[in-house]
């Protein structure tokens, strides 16, 4: 009989021996022991897509993570709001050129049309300027040159954008619930539950190591299918497959009968460093779009999620925009 890991897992032998792990508790164990269970070696494709922190291991990873962490603190990220704002303005002005007030038009917010290509370029420009700022500050910190003046300047800018720009300036309920309708945060949580962009996480044993009650030899891949756990009826209840943001009304920890079963950003020491960044950017973009447009799903949209590195709509995501 094949050894099982947790309640319902299997072992098979593909290109390398692998274990499918479905038990949230064991997933937590694997994800928290980041020196024992490391990322599987890069393939030419993953090398192309990811470099830096996400590809480092052990002490080199720890050093870089420690250095980069402060730049991703929520307060620091609010400094990026003006940059997000400008990139959203650029996108909206492009939309405004193809639709006038009271009119409507169809856009594909996913497929690489010319407009979307330009949006990707803008996102890259913003990202590289942000990275430039972070690198400069990291070098200054490493060289012991980050002056009080720098910190003071950060604080002055912070004071200006601190008053939760998203909620107040853009009138969106970012974190609170109003009158029983779901907050934007709850909606994003539910989207990331049903469609986690990284649908499967993987780790690999470096030497003989135990997980749960099973001993694994070196070189075994541990596959953790985030998406299957996110859709599990035993964890989320009978409406597991439905889109129901209300399940997050009392926060992430109360949404499921197992707190560890929701992990769109991973878990443990290697949890996504950009999760606040991603949520803030998405809220900002949505807030700005809703100020100018209402939108419906286009009749031409066909629901066909597929994984091409990340989970994405196979035939694009067409929306009909109505200019307010
Ligand atoms: C919705 C958007 C995002 C999702 C769903 C996501 C998801 C994830 C997940 C699941 C991991 C853990 C991978 C693993 O444990 O093997 C991860 C790691 C990481 N993410 Fe994200 N991510 C998002 C956005 C971002 C953004 C915006 C940034 C940067 C600005 C970012 C930077 C990173 C980095 C550097 C790591 C590696 C961290 C480490 O190894 O210490 N992510 N992300």
TrEMBL record:
Keywords: Heme, Iron, Membrane, Metal-binding, Monooxygenase, Oxidoreductase, Transmembrane, Transmembrane helix. SUPFAM superfamilies: Cytochrome P450. The keyword Cell membrane does not apply. It is a single-pass membrane protein. It is found in: Membrane. InterPro entries: Cyt_P450 (IPR001128), Cyt_P450_CS (IPR017972), Cyt_P450_E_grp-I (IPR002401), Cyt_P450_sf (IPR036396), Cytochrome_P450_Monooxygen (IPR050665). It comes from the Eukaryota. The keyword Iron applies. It holds the Pfam family p450. Belongs to the cytochrome P450 family. This is Uncharacterized protein. It comes from Rehmannia glutinosa (Chinese foxglove).
């Amino acid at each position: 009989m094949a050894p099982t890991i947790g309640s319902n897992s299997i072992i098979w032998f593909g290109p390398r021996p692998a274990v499918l792990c479905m038990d949230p508790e064991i997933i937590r164990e694997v994800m928290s022991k980041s020196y024992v269970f490391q990322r599987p070696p890069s393939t030419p494709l993953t090398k192309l897509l990811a470099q830096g922190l996400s590809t480092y291991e052990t002490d080199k990873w720890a050093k870089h993570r420690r250095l980069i962490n402060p730049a991703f603190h929520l307060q620091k990220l609010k400094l990026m709001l003006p940059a997000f704002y400008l990139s959203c303005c650029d996108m909206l002005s492009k939309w405004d050129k193809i639709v006038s007030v009271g009119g409507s038009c169809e856009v594909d917010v996913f497929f690489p049309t010319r407009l979307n290509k330009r949006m990707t370029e803008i996102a890259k420009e913003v990202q590289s300027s942000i990275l430039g700022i972070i690198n400069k500050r990291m070098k200054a910190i490493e060289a012991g040159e980050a002056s009080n003046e720098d910190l003071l300047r950060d604080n002055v800018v912070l004071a200006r954008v601190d008053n939760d720009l998203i909620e107040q300036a853009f009138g969106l309920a970012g974190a609170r619930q109003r009158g029983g309708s779901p907050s934007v945060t709850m909606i994003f949580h539910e989207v990331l539950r049903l469609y986690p962009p990284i649908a499967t996480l993987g780790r690999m044993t470096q030497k003989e190591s135990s997980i749960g009650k099973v001993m694994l030899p070196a070189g075994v891949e541990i596959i953790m299918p985030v998406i299957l756990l996110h859709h599990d009826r035993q964890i989320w209840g009978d409406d597991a497959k439905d889109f129901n943001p209300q399940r997050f009304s009392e926060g992430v920890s109360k949404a499921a009968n197992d707190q560890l079963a929701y992990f769109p950003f991973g878990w443990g020491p290697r949890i996504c460093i950009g999760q606040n960044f991603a949520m803030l950017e998405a809220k900002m973009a949505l807030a700005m779009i809703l100020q100018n447009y209402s939108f419906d799903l286009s009749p031409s949209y066909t629901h066909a999620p597929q994984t091409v590195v990340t989970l994405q709509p196979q035939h694009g995501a067409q929306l009909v925009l109505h200019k307010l």
